[in-house]
Amino acid sequence: MREGIHPVYVPARVACACGHTFVTRSTRGDFQVDVCWKCHPFYTGTQKLIDTAGRVDRFRKRYEKPQKAAADKAERVADKAAAAAAAAVDKSEEKPS
Q1: DSSP 30
Q2: Pairing state between β 21-26 and 31-33
């Protein structure tokens, strides 16, 4: 490595808004954060789903329709195939005169 081109990498004290502090290393020194592993909902297991203005419902509604349409189409194809099979059976049962 070349000398004199790398930043100084010093121990840094990180302070969270919840009051938890820990030491790591950084090029910028001490700093504060809003959320750390002690208070973040994902790590504490208290994660809640917050539905802002029905976004989850809108998402479900938007992507529910194509699935319903695909199921309806599959049903129509199956009905058409069954009708074609029944017609083929009827034709084979007819006796030529």
Answers
A1: S
A2: unpaired
Domain made up of 1-44: CATH architecture? Irregular (4.10)
Interior CA angle at 35 toward 9 and 44, to 5°? 120
This prediction's pTM = 0.42
CA distance 77 to 79: 5
Q: Where are the domains of the chain?
A: 1-44, 52-86
CB burial of residue 15 (10 Å; 0-12, 13-18, 19+)? middle
Q: What is the pLDDT along the chain (97 residues), one digit of tens a residue?
A: 788 898 999 999 999 998 999 999 999 899 999 888 888 877 777 766 666 677 878 888 888 766 667 777 888 888 888 888 887 777 776 655 5
